[in-house]
């Protein structure tokens, strides 16, 4: 892959393409500039650190933060949770995410080369980077192109090793009642980037391979799953291993929106959206706006070695009902608002995604039932993870929350000891490892 120098970001303005250098982008959005130009806070101009909660939300809706009115920054689903579910919003200034020169160079090379096939709704000519760096909001296919950017161009590295992560299950009345722990490895076979890295492994039909193994509790210990995700529109292939009977069975890929065990997630809810975009009959861009979301998480949500619950789960408000609310900084982030319409047999009538306009990751999503009522709310927070070369990084989830308002229940994801691009990860993602005891792995210090 040829690297372009210097890499530039492109935006379509009045029909013309304008390149903006990384340096200019950072200078224009740097915290120093924000501090220099920010008006003195006080009164109806809110300061960083202000907490919006049920006692003051109605008085603060007309106030502003970083030049935005609070009523414009808060989603209706978030306002409802502040009023009725004790959610607290602590304001913070947004810090710009750094850019990866390899992804930027690949994205620029895709301009005019990568296309969308109107018959199949699939991308043609793509190998790595953003397939559609310039989004024209008036384009009837803008929503679909954004979802292909999300699918292909997240800053996720080429492989990941989650040595341990957890799903915490929380009931509105009973509080935290179950924690399941796992180890997870994934190798991405397309869209790979970095110095000397070929963008595709194999013939280009496979998007990723991953393996999950349960570490606990005892009733799940040793269970596992191995999956192949395709980039052809075909359903995923998944094999599930049951430790109690020591048997592996194949799971139908047609169950791509089935519930995940007892979690509040469907299979396609993972990472806000985890499916092939063409499986949805309609994807529509509703617009662009700035919202309050958790961008950079303060610290890990889960510290398994801590004895006290409040220390073990520092990003959860376990002490107060509904016991699942995040405790973190909320920043103004510009997002595309994309509505996806699932097939008729899907439990959701529609799902609205809020995706970063530069880096594509999803901050939040609202899912509605077949009667049109709010069914679930998803929120993801992120962290920078360094990669295996100078200036390389991944922007990947630190915690995630899925709230099911019908069940009065939530499932919260949190991970630690995660690293990226390790040379041994590819060998770990193999179905023969299902049922095998975990081998000790030296964990490099991969957090900045």
Overall mean pLDDT score?
89
Query: Biggest sheet: strands, sense, closure?
Result: 15 strands, mixed
CATH 4th-level superfamily of the domain at 159-289 and 334-433: Lipoprotein localisation LolA/LolB/LppX
Any idea of the CATH class of the domain at 159-289 and 334-433?
Answer: Mainly Beta
* Poorly predicted segments: 1-36, 438-448
What oligomeric state do these chains adopt? single chain
CATH architecture of the domain at 159-289 and 334-433: Clam
Helix content: 10-25%
Rounded to the nearest angstrom, the distance between the terminal CA atoms is 28 Å
How many whole angstroms does the radius of gyration measure? 22 Å
Count of helical stretches: 9
Tell me, briefly, the overall form. globular
Provide the succession of SSEs: EEHHEHEEHHEHEEHEEEEEEEHEEEEEEH
What proportion of the residues form beta strands (DSSP E)? Answer: 35-45%
CATH topology of the domain at 159-289 and 334-433: outer membrane lipoprotein receptor (LolB), chain A
SSE class:
mainly beta
Can you walk me through this structure?
The chain has 448 residues and is mostly beta strands. The chain has a domain at 159-289 and 334-433: Clam (outer membrane lipoprotein receptor (LolB), chain A). Helix content is 14%, strand content 35%. The protein is built from nine helices and 21 strands. It has helices at 22-29, 31-37, 57-60, 70-73, 76-84, 101-110, 142-153, 309-312, 425-428; strands at 8-13, 16-21, 51-52, 64-65, 68-69, 89-91, 115-116, 123-124, 159-171, 175-188, 206-216, 224-230, 237-242, 247-251, 282-293, 329-341, 350-356, 362-368, 374-386, 393-404, 409-420. The strands form four sheets. It has a 15-stranded mixed sheet that branches. Strands 1-2 form a two-stranded antiparallel sheet. A hairpin with a 6-residue loop joins β7 and β8 (123-124). The longest helix has 12 residues, at 142-153. The two termini are 28 Å apart. Mean pLDDT is 89; it is low at 1-36 and 438-448.
